[in-house]
Amino acid sequence: MFKLDTGRYPTQTEGLRALVHQPKNTQGWTVGGYLETREIPKDDWDNDYIYKTDPNAKPPFEIISLGADGIQGGEGQNADLSTRQIYLE
Fold it and tell me: 63 and 87 in one domain?
């Protein structure tokens, strides 16, 4: 909805925070934000999500959870999870 309203995805600098707090100089942003809360949710292990952008990728953003250990890489519960994995499957 952010993209539909503003014509773009949040920048990497704005991150997921742009979904709950209007970035400066952003036209069309929905008052109240795009989540049911004013806080950015944490992953299932209470770690922050990582938001990355790449204009040459499809989709041009990626949201990552570093798994239970909060460290890049790993297997099982410690494996990283990414929206790119879902998109490519």
Answer: yes
Q: What whole-number distance in Å separates Cα of residue 17 and Cα of residue 22?
A: 8
Number of domains in the chain: 2
The encoded tokens of residue 49 equal 């999500």
Angle at Cα 57 formed by Cα 65 and Cα 34, nearest 5°?
A: 55
Q: Which residue has the tokens 């890489």?
A: 73
Distance CA 54, CA 30 (A): 24
Radius of gyration of the chain (CA): 14
Encode the chain (89 residues) as per-residue pLDDT tens digits: 999 999 999 999 999 999 999 999 999 999 999 999 999 999 999 999 999 999 998 889 999 999 999 999 999 999 999 998 876 65
Domain enclosing residue 16, as ranges: 1-40
Residues 11 and 29 placed together within one structural domain of the fold = yes
